[in-house]
């Protein structure tokens, strides 16, 4: 039975956790509280990708920069802070675009810090369905959980469609993509059958196949098979 006292202790822990994170990070593309704003904001990446209409075509030329910006932020959080900071809710809704269509990530609410020497931590699951790594459902989380969520977002950027459609409203992809794993299988099938151009937004993107492979590599079911975000940055810039 959860008492009022237990709830208050939990709320206090959440506040202290967020204060620690806010005072620990100093990165130009990070926003560490829910009321922060972006100069010349053009709304969230989610809004641009899925509700932007013809205006979203402006985003096409910035996709490479967008995915690299987010990867660098996560690499910073995981490897360059006093402790490892896990975002635990990487998704297009939490990525804001400024007037120059540069990406800024909001880090608050679900984020937590763990010691540098820890490989993972067991705690209550957090995140958003469709972007959560499998291990989060049993309360085990690590930097590799963010890698998974990043890869789902990366594949959505490439295909300009959601990885998770709970209703399966239209088309082959929607009806077959009840989970991110279905989305991964769909994308992998297109790659192996040489049909990738059928689902990508910008066929002219340099090294498109390599970028898709990065996404597929990072969305693996087994946590230890996913690369670190430092490796992801190297792969994207390589």
Automatic annotation (TrEMBL):
Keyword Zinc attached: no
InterPro entries linked: G-type_lectin_kinases/EP1-like (IPR051343), Kinase-like_dom_sf (IPR011009), Prot_kinase_dom (IPR000719), Tyr_kinase_cat_dom (IPR020635)
Domain of life: Eukaryota
GO molecular function: ATP binding; protein tyrosine kinase activity
Domain named Protein kinase: residues: 1-238
Xref: Pfam families: Pkinase (PF00069)
Alphabetized UniProt keyword annotations: Lectin, Signal
Protein name per its UniProtKB record: Protein kinase domain-containing protein
Taxonomic source organism: Setaria italica (Foxtail millet)
């Amino acid at each position: 039975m959860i008492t009022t006292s237990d709830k208050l202790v939990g709320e206090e822990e959440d506040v202290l956790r967020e204060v620690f994170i806010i005072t620990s990070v100093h990165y130009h593309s990070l926003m560490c509280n829910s009321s922060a704003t972006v100069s010349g904001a053009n709304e969230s990446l989610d809004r641009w990708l899925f509700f932007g209409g013809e205006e979203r075509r402006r985003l096409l030329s910035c996709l490479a920069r967008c995915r690299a910006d987010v990867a660098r932020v996560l690499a910073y959080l995981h490897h360059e802070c006093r402790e490892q900071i896990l975002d635990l809710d990487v998704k297009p809704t939490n990525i804001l675009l400024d007037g120059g269509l540069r990406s800024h990530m909001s880090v608050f609410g679900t984020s937590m810090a763990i010691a540098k020497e820890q490989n993972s931590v067991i705690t209550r699951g957090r995140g958003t369905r469709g972007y959560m790594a499998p291990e989060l459902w049993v309360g085990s989380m690590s930097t590799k959980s963010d890698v998974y969520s990043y890869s789902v977002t990366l594949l959505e950027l490439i295909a300009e469609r959601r990885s998770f459609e709970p209703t399966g409203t239209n088309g082959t992809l929607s009806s077959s993509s009840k989970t991110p794993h279905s989305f991964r299988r769909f994308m992998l099938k297109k790659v192996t059958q040489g049909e990738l151009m059928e689902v990508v937004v910008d066929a002219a993107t340099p090294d498109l196949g390599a970028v898709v492979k990065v996404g597929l590599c990072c969305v693996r079911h087994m946590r230890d098979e996913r690369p670190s975000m430092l490796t992801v940055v190297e792969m994207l810039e390589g």
